[in-house]
């Protein structure tokens, strides 16, 4: 692994958090898989050797529970969803180089090998712990069969995670007031021997790892709470018979915890791809195994290839603490980057599968929309780590304004004019001005790849198309064909080159549409997915047929119809399931309103609100405060003066990226002293992730917020 800019001379692998084989896919899931697919395609565009691998997560308690309800085996239940996912992903142009599952022979063998390596290295030990036991059912209870109270925050929790409160990973026996999910009766805690992974011994390594890690700031900063605090060992076995058996264990009801074998599928799927295409084309061992001489250094980053994980933000801890610790202890390559997506909301409310407040993958396709429209919406509608709201009206707005009005309009009018007037590409050289603009767009694309920003990747193409529209409109070649035919030919030659560059840059976002356009005028026998960024300035086809409009508008009556369908579905599901337990949040879902802090009943007057002096500020500098794990010392320009403000952002934001950020400041707050540092004001932020409040436009520092 390196930290050089892409492309590097080492092979890369891009993965996405495994879909749990327990339900239908929806837009919340697709955001991650489309985002990772886009990033993988973009890496290929910059010339990086890479593979995109994934697989279905087949194990765990929820699958066993739901399989029992349906009267089938867990394997049969999970395989049915696995097959559905295999069929659905290609329909959204999500192109895995390999898609396996955690219950196949390769992953069983790889998992067994890694666990034995952990044992041989002394990182696994046996320990008797208190485990939930249901006297009525006469069986030990795996974590998801136990519910109770979180010992840290007091909220309702399940056996392995405080999913409704602080979000902490919980070890067996930690949940207070345990209740058996099987019978609904109080559970007992009884002693039971389990295996533990010595994560605590890898704290120094993990502290170095998190400093090296690339990706989104939430994935880098959120884990610091655990890595820099008390790091506890991790129980890696569970009391059930569905999963991968602990190697050599004589107890047939003790299996590996699902979070051991699930991420190992990344390695197993890469192996399967390498075995299929041959190691000469792509060598899995070159990616995942560091050189022998580097493996002997206990706290080194190791060698290997460029491992990039795209995940949901609800599984950051697993991918930035447990997973790299396990890889390092077993002698495998650590991740270079972890990019965590935000949640998806529907019409401003939390996505809820049980209340049918979701846009289902198959539903979207059944409505007849092209998959690339949704890919564009999900990848460019905000940064990767930001929450994205989906509504049919917002979908319509993005499609009509940007895909139809900007990108599609430029491509169609330019290529149609070129074909009608010149039969294809005019025989002149591209102007220096347009060549420079294409080079700038290519540079933006490269920067997006190296910043793990699929939004920037997509916006580089849209911005170039916007320039093209302005260029052709200002030059008016239709008026030059008679007055100045040489200039007319120059303008259209420029526009066809711009169009080719747009298609090259837009392929990772909209591969299906890009391929259709490429076939019209690309001038290259290779598919557009296989060309690199150099093709943006290569000559288009000298002759080509008249194009068709690449995108169609979404009409108002269509949006109204789809919105009514969604509302009716939600109303029906809500009335049927008012008493449904929604304690489990599906991947990609935002929390329900009931999971948020309640609104205060006590109101304040308008006059009281007016007493708050809220000002736009700009962070000029940010530095950690010694001895304070969560605090940063900021200097903030609020127009009238530059203030020093202490803010609890250290574990949630990269302080080096904060300068230049616009924020909202409470300017008339009493001064305070924190850790010996004066704080003169307060910076406002939303939620547990400290989402900084900022301005949509260009308000100057000092502007009053009303």
UniProtKB/TrEMBL annotation:
One record GO biological process: methionyl-tRNA aminoacylation
Instruction: Reply yes or no: does the keyword tRNA-binding apply.
Output: yes
- Where is ATP annotated to bind? 353
Q: Which PROSITE patterns match?
A: AA_TRNA_LIGASE_I, TRBD
Q: Which EC main class describes this enzyme?
A: ligase
**Sequence motif: 'HIGH' region, positions:** 19-29
Keywords (alphabetical) are: Aminoacyl-tRNA synthetase, ATP-binding, Cytoplasm, Ligase, Metal-binding, Nucleotide-binding, Protein biosynthesis, RNA-binding, tRNA-binding, Zinc
Q: Which cofactor does it need?
A: Zn(2+)
Q: Which residues form a coiled coil?
A: none
Q: Report the catalytic activity.
A: tRNA(Met) + L-methionine + ATP = L-methionyl-tRNA(Met) + AMP + diphosphate
**Entry's transmembrane regions:** none
Mark out the compositionally biased spans (Acidic residues). Answer: 573-597
Gene Ontology cellular-component terms for this entry are: aminoacyl-tRNA synthetase multienzyme complex; cytosol
The source's superkingdom equals Archaea
Tell me the cofactor note: Binds 1 zinc ion per subunit.
Residues annotated to bind Zn(2+): 150, 153, 162, 166
Q: Name one Pfam family in it.
A: Anticodon_3
Domain TRNA-binding per the UniProt entry, residue ranges: 608-706
Q: Where is this region: Disordered?
A: 568-597
What is this protein's function? Is required not only for elongation of protein synthesis but also for the initiation of all mRNA translation through initiator tRNA(fMet) aminoacylation.
Q: What family does this chain come from, according to its entry?
A: Belongs to the class-I aminoacyl-tRNA synthetase family. MetG type 1 subfamily.
> Which PANTHER family does the UniProt entry name for this protein?
METHIONINE--TRNA LIGASE (PTHR45765), METHIONINE--TRNA LIGASE, CYTOPLASMIC (PTHR45765:SF1)
Q: What is this protein called?
A: Methionine--tRNA ligase
Its source organism is Salinirubellus salinus
Q: What is the lineage of its organism?
A: Archaea, Methanobacteriati, Methanobacteriota, Stenosarchaea group, Halobacteria
């Amino acid at each position: 692994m390196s930290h050089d800019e892409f492309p590097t001379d080492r092979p890369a692998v891009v993965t996405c958090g495994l879909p749990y084989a327990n339900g239908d896919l929806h837009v919340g899931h697709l955001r991650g898989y489309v985002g990772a697919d886009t990033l993988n395609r973009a890496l290929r565009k910059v010339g990086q050797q890479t593979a995109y691998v994934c697989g279905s997560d087949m194990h765990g308690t929820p699958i066993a529970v739901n399989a029992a309800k349906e009267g089938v085996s867990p394997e049969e239940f999970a395989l049915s969803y696995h097959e559905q996912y295999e069929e659905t992903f290609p329909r959204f142009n999500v192109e895995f180089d390999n898609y396996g599952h955690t219950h196949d022979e390769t992953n069983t063998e790889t998992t067994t090998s890694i666990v034995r390596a952990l044992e041989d290295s002394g990182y696994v030990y046996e320990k008797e712990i208190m485990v939930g036991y249901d006297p009525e059912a006469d069986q030990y209870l795996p974590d998801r069969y136990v519910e109770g109270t979180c010992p840290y925050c007091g909220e309702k929790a399940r056996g392995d995670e405080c999913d409704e409160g602080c979000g902490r990973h919980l070890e067996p026996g930690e949940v207070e007031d345990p209740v058996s999910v099987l019978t609904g009766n109080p559970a007992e805690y009884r002693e039971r021997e389990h295996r533990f992974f010595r994560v605590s011994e890898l704290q120094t390594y993990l502290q170095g790892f998190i400093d090296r890690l690339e990706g989104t700031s939430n994935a880098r900063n959120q884990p610091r709470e655990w890595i820099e605090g008390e790091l506890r060992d991790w129980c890696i076995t569970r009391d059930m018979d569905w999963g991968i058996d602990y190697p050599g264990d004589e107890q047939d009801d003790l299996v590996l915890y699902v979070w051991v074998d699930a991420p190992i599928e990344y390695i197993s799927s890469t192996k399967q791809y390498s075995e299929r295409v041959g190691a000469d084309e792509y060598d899995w061992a070159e990616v995942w195994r560091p050189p022998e001489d580097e493996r002997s250094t206990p706290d080194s980053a190791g060698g290997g290839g460029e491992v990039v994980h795209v995940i949901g933000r609800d599984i950051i801890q697993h991918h930035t603490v447990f997973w790299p610790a396990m890889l390092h202890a077993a002698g495998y390559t650590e991740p270079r980057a972890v990019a965590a997506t935000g949640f998806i909301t529907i019409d401003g409310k939390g996505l809820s599968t049980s209340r049918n407040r979701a846009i289902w993958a198959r539903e979207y396709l059944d409505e007849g929309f092209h998959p690339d429209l949704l890919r564009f919406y999900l990848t460019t509608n905000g940064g990767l780590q930001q929450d994205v709201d989906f509504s049919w009206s917002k979908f319509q707005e993005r499609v009509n304004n940007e895909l139809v009005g900007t990108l599609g309009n430029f491509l169609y009018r330019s290529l149609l004019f070129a074909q009608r007037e010149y039969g294809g590409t005019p025989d002149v050289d591209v102007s220096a001005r347009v060549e420079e603009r294409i080079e700038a767009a290519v540079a933006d694309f490269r920067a997006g790849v190296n910043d793990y920003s699929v939004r920037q990747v997509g916006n580089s193409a849209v911005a170039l198309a916007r320039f093209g529209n302005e260029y052709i409109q200002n030059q008016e070649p239709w008026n030059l064909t008679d007055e100045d035919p040489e200039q007319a030919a120059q303008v259209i030659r420029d526009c066809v080159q711009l169009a080719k560059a747009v298609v090259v840059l837009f392929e990772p976002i909209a591969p299906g549409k890009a391929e259709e356009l490429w076939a019209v005028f690309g001038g290259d026998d290779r598919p557009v997915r296989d060309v690199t960024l150099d093709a943006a300035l290569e000559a288009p086809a000298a002759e080509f047929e008249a194009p068709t409009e690449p995108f169609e508008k979404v009409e108002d009556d269509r949006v109204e119809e789809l919105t009514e369908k969604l509302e009716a579905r939600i109303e029906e599901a809500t009335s049927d399931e008012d008493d449904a337990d929604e304690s489990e949040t599906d991947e990609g879902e935002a929390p329900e309103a009931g999971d948020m802090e309640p609104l205060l009943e006590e109101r304040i007057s308008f006059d009281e609100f007016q007493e708050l002096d809220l000002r736009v500020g700009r962070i000029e500098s940010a530095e950690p405060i010694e001895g304070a794990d969560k605090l940063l010392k900021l200097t903030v320009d609020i127009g009238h003066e530059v203030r020093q403000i202490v803010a609890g952002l250290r574990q949630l934001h990269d302080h080096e990226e904060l300068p230049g950020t616009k924020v909202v400041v409470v300017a008339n707050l009493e001064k305070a002293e924190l850790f010996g540092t004066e704080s003169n004001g307060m910076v406002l932020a939303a939620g547990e992730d400290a989402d900084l409040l900022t301005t949509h436009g260009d308000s100057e520092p000092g502007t009053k917020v009303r």
